[in-house]
Amino acid sequence: MSNGYRTKPILYEVVVLNRHRITMFLCALLSAWLPGCLWPETLEPPVANALSGNVVDPSTARVAGALVLLTGDATKEATTDASGHFSFSLSPGKYHLVIGASGFQTVELDELVSDKPLPVLTVPLPIATESEVVSVNAADGASTSADTNATALVFKKEQLDMLSDNDATLQQQLLALAGGDGEHPPQVYIDGFTGGRFPPKSSIREIRINQNPYSAQYDDLGFGRVEVFTKPGSDKWHGSFQTQGNDRSFNSRNPFAGVQPEYHTLYLDGNVSGPLNKKTSLFLGGTYNDLQNNTVINAFTLDSNLAQTSFSQAVPDPQTSKTFSARLDRQLTTNNTFLARYEYNQVLATNGGVGQLVLASEGYNNSTTTQTLQLGNTQVIGAHLISETRFQYIRTRLQQNAIDSTASIVVQGAFSGGGSPTQNQSDNQDRYEFQQYVSWTHGKHFLRGGARYRLLRDANVSSANYNGQFTFPDLDTYQKTLQGIANGLTPAQIRANGGGASQFSLTAGQPTATILTGNVGIYAEDEWQLRKDFTVDLGFRFESQSAIPDHVDPAPRIGFAWAVHQGDKHPAWMTIRGGYGIFYDRFQPTNLLTANRQNGISQTSYFVQSPDFYPTIPAPSSLTGVPPTIYRLASNLRVPYALIAGISAERNFGKIGTVSAMYLNIHGVHENLSRNVNAPLPGTYDPAVPTSGVRPLGGSQNIYQFSTDGVSRGNLLIVRAQLNPAKWVNVWAFYLNQHANSDFGIGSTFVSNSYNVGADYSRAPWNITNRFFGGGSFKLPYGFSIETFLIARGGRNFNITTGADNNGDTIYNDRPAFATDLTRSSVVHTSLGNFDTDPLPSQTIVPRNYGNGPSYISLQLSISKGFKFGPRPPAPPPDPAAKKGTPPPGKPDPPFEFGFSAEAQNIFNRVNAGVPIGIVTSSLFGKSNSLEGGFFDNSAANRTINLRTYFRF
């Protein structure tokens, strides 16, 4: 079936080749804005009597295994190789070209005259609708194209079935598979844009993970990238509707919870798609999700008699969400297509922030509404130039209301109670993104370039910490404080008995703050096929961000691929790939917002050491003698970046599948962290004397500074296999071994020693030594199918702290020492060893992230069955792009399908405990008080069984 894409002879007469690829690339860039621009007439023409080209998809990735049929004075047939390339030798005459590939629309090009110079064509294949799919076998040759690295994962059609039908679980699975280096969360692109939310699985056409990792087009790390492409409309009206859910009777209980309130989940999803006219198609979808969940609290508190007691409670934390989306695809001309997509999403949540050590009183309710508009235009300019223009606008409105407005109480390692420290908040974000990309093929060069600009406006109103917060180092101190108050003791007597809060903080002043920040990225790259078996990729990217001191961020990239011993008559033994590049991590706008608001003028934060007025909340006017704490950016702040070098080996076993292994070395420089740059100098602060300590800038003011002084180093080994040993079996596996060290945490966390950042250099908090993911899809008799997804990984590490501020920097992240004198009163005996909470200068401080958490193993299993019914439509005519000898297609399936499925998460009911408590003075030290979350969205159960029914037409 043709999509109407036909070219005129003039397109091939005005476009000729040039030996000087740099000059041509500049002309290609110019043509993106001036379509009438002609190539210079003095350029050298190509060799006549030959036709060659490259077949690409809408994202300009190469399409392997496409069938190419040439008819006219002679008839020829070919299949694109693994890098999407085809070529013919022609006798003079006129020809008609037809190109078809599985999952794409067939494209026709006519009036090709071989006695005139014919350039190397770049043929984009539009995505096929359901009735336009062509069955094509993949090419057998090894590809050296940057888009076909076997270390990537691609899910479409049957492969998507292996993933969860629950959208929240699906998202967690994809983020886990992306892996990355652990430090940076995986970056998600929705139809080429960042910042959007995951669409429902029913509206996803294809998912690509970690494809073309060294591309200069992307600003973030090449590994840890998830690209999601939504479905276009169809040429006939189709639709699907499904409902799924469960209640507590289907699930096993949470072993960390006692009596639980009733809970259930209900998920509704529907979509329709079809043509508005011959050139326009529409896709409409909507979802409704009702998650009546419970969150579990396991803490230590005081009872009515002020005796220490364990406390367990399951608190309802329901969440509902609804989504509506619409996508319009319009073919403006034969060479110009337009896409528009709109999405509305609203999430309502109750009792947010509650769980583990956080009591129900600290909960809050919030509402988040997000609207997304995406516009895209793709133009085919000439025979081998593609221009893509995209625009995205995301409007987010958040409202948060605290349940309790009393002061927050933090008892280290025991519980957090009182009012929520975040209190009320209103946040209005407007995000804009503009992209202009071009791609062009010139002989053995595949050139790409363009620019991307993002702009964020964030207007925020926050009363965080306006209610004040008291901090106690442990439950014993809190108990003695309340007992002293009950017995009428004075604050001095309470503190003499070992009671009293260790710190009080309060924020006052102007609650509003607004920031405007943008960043730009410009890139160009050349995929140069030096030989049939060797390709090199050369790229350069330049980035800049506003509102910070650093504005010049160059990012060179280089990669190569070598198909070892590949010849015309025999496949390659293996493909070796390697690369090196610099990848920047943009400075977070939330830090800019904090520095803008808490500058000591607009908003003032007070910290009082060893306060004697608990539980009274002093008026801000009474704290004028306390120097305010301020946030600021370091004057030498740099944008963090990582230097990544890697090499991989890929082995193709034909139709059976592929196996690959990759090694990565990652060195992070100028990483984000926070410091108190006016903290007391080491050795000058005495916790018994709150006003003690010599500060380098004088006075007693705390100055929190966002700095980029951190470093990290990591090594990763990644092994991946995807196998199809039989038509009814599709299995894959992904293993990652990691060793990473750093002197900073995730985000802009505070260092434990502001004057020696290196003191925190040890295992990185994201370091998980072993991770394994595997899955399979099995087609069974009578139309049944089984899908599996296995997750197995080592435990997360955790930091061990004293629960006190030992150095006077007002940050509670100080670590104990390994005890050398067990007679000291400051020594705590634990299952992990003996630790001294008041370290001596001669003692060794416990390394950061010294503790090891439990491992995680979970198997997902689903079984499904569909029933097709209705009158069969007539068989389609033979496909002109089909290979010779291919049997004609049979009658299509009936138009209607009804089916059901059952999906179980953690089918073996293994208890996957969460990260243990790391405060040595806690009764829960070294113990987990919750399940490890992340891979399914029901914290009330240990194993869940979800039932689903669907109808399609």
Automatic annotation (TrEMBL):
<feature type="region of interest" description="Disordered">
    <location>
        <begin position="868"/>
        <end position="896"/>
    </location>
</feature>
<feature type="compositionally biased region" description="Pro residues">
    <location>
        <begin position="871"/>
        <end position="895"/>
    </location>
</feature>
<feature type="domain" description="TonB-dependent transporter Oar-like beta-barrel">
    <location>
        <begin position="308"/>
        <end position="548"/>
    </location>
</feature>
<dbReference type="InterPro" id="IPR057601">
    <property type="entry name" value="Oar-like_b-barrel"/>
</dbReference>
<dbReference type="Pfam" id="PF13620">
    <property type="entry name" value="CarboxypepD_reg"/>
</dbReference>
<dbReference type="InterPro" id="IPR036942">
    <property type="entry name" value="Beta-barrel_TonB_sf"/>
</dbReference>
<protein>
    <submittedName>
        <fullName>Cna B-type protein</fullName>
    </submittedName>
</protein>
<dbReference type="GO" id="GO:0009279">
    <property type="term" value="C:cell outer membrane"/>
</dbReference>
<dbReference type="InterPro" id="IPR008969">
    <property type="entry name" value="CarboxyPept-like_regulatory"/>
</dbReference>
<keyword id="KW-0472">Membrane</keyword>
<feature type="domain" description="TonB-dependent transporter Oar-like beta-barrel">
    <location>
        <begin position="550"/>
        <end position="869"/>
    </location>
</feature>
<dbReference type="Pfam" id="PF25183">
    <property type="entry name" value="OMP_b-brl_4"/>
</dbReference>
<keyword id="KW-0998">Cell outer membrane</keyword>
